[in-house]
Design goal:
The chain is an alpha+beta fold. The chain contains 13 helices and nine strands. The strands form two sheets. Strands 3-9-8-5-6 form a five-stranded mixed β-sheet. A four-stranded mixed β-sheet has the order 2-1-4-7. Helix 2 packs antiparallel against helix 8, helix 7 runs antiparallel to helix 8 and helix 11 runs antiparallel to helix 12. It starts with 10 loop residues before the first helix and ends with a helix.
């Protein structure tokens, strides 16, 4: 998960905004340049080149002119995420493609990747409706089913983990910890799109906002591996984890999913690997980072494979490169598990500097072409 989250959503607004990006893409007769919004981010400002655009595909051309790493979000008014790009370094540029229908949105820059961000309002006007490629509609439907399956399969595993914590059985809880996270890690962008669930279940100590109580997996991870004790508070938190993830399971079917959000989500999963798993920050107590790493890559690959038929038609060279880099990263990860059908990976504290660099290089080699997937399916 990223270091900090945007503020929580409200149920009423979520239902109202849901209709804004569903069904067929609404494309206008506007020229491509009319759908590009320049976003200039600094440490204290977030300037946008347009305040109004026609419905359809929109591209954020982001430039970070500040001294801090930043994130840029396209948001519904209730803070659910339409699209995002994390870890935009000082002096660098990124492009983010999304799909929007008529309505009001927010563009937010988060210098230092903290807080609610500096925001600008974006109005999207109606465009002439155009039927989306039916292959993309099929891809969205298949991915929605995949995300729901991952959530459904996660809950029983979380229940086993929570039961072990409540029983005070440290060794059983340790064994159940990493498997309970796989489905979440595969579909993390969907969970993060709601805004309020991720801070409850997947935040690290250094990602807490001021006044925020630390709950979720990583709070329990610390208790098991570092503190080596389970008390009444940990037992209560285990129950809360089940409750919060049950909420996630029930809401997955309401997530706004589009072909470009699938593509951007795949890139986000690789960013998660680069900023949390490769560095060892995510699972700093249990060192189960490679389990999360593999799940993130699997989730990204699922989105890619569903979008691949259209992407191949629009940009065959990109698909060739993505196939190559996914295969290389999968092969590299297999070096760290004795059985390729198992999720028992080498403890990450046993992976030396050379191994971590090799993994980082492989992630970067995949992330660069993967950042172009959304544009390929939007052509």
């Amino acid at each position: 998960m990223r270091a900090a989250r945007l503020s929580a959503v409200t149920a009423v607004a979520a239902v109202t905004a849901l209709a804004a990006v569903t069904g067929c893409t609404s494309k206008s007769d506007a020229k491509d340049g009319d759908r590009v919004i320049g976003v200039t981010a600094t440490d204290s400002t977030c300037e946008t080149s347009k305040k109004e655009i026609p419905a359809g595909h929109v591209e954020l051309a982001v430039e970070n002119k500040g001294s801090k790493v930043t994130e840029v979000y396209l948001l519904f008014p209730d803070d659910r995420i339409v699209s995002e790009r994390e870890n935009i370094g000082p002096g660098t540029k990124q492009r983010v493609t999304a799909e929007v229908k008529a309505g009001e949105y927010r563009i937010a820059c988060k210098p230092g990747m903290k807080g609610d961000g500096i925001r600008q309002t974006l109005k999207v006007t109606g465009g002439s409706a155009a039927q989306r490629d039916p292959r993309l509609d099929k891809a969205v439907a298949a991915y929605r089913a995949y995300a729901q399956t991952q959530a459904d399969e996660t809950l029983p595993k979380v229940a086993v983990f929570a039961a072990a914590v409540k029983a005070g059985n440290i060794e059983a809880a340790k064994k159940a910890y990493a498997p309970s996270r796989i489905g979440w890690e595969r579909t993390e962008p969907v969970a993060e799109s709601f805004g309020d669930i991720d801070p409850l279940v997947d935040v690290r100590a250094d990602g807490l906002e001021s006044g925020q109580k630390w709950t979720g997996w990583h709070r329990l991870e610390k208790a098991l591996w570092q503190d080596k004790k389970i008390g009444a508070e940990e037992k209560a938190l285990a129950g809360k984890l089940v409750t919060d993830l049950t909420d996630w399971q029930k809401r997955v079917g309401k997530a706004v999913i589009t072909p470009t959000s699938m593509a951007n989500g795949a890139k986000e999963l690789l960013d998660e690997v680069a900023t949390g798993k490769v560095t060892g920050e995510e699972e700093r107590y249990s060192h189960t980072d490679l389990v999360d790493f593999k799940a993130n890559v699997e989730g990204a690959q699922q989105s890619y494979e569903l979008l691949k038929p259209v992407a191949k038609e629009n940009d065959g060279a990109l698909v060739t490169e993505l196939d190559k880099q996914f295969a290389a990263l999968d092969a590299l990860l297999d070096k760290y598990r004795p059985n390729t059908t198992s999720y028992e990976f080498t403890s990450y504290d046993k992976v030396g500097a050379a191994g971590r660099k090799e993994l980082s290089d492989a992630v970067n080699a995949l992330a660069e072409p993967l950042s172009k997937l959304a544009a390929a399916v939007a052509k």
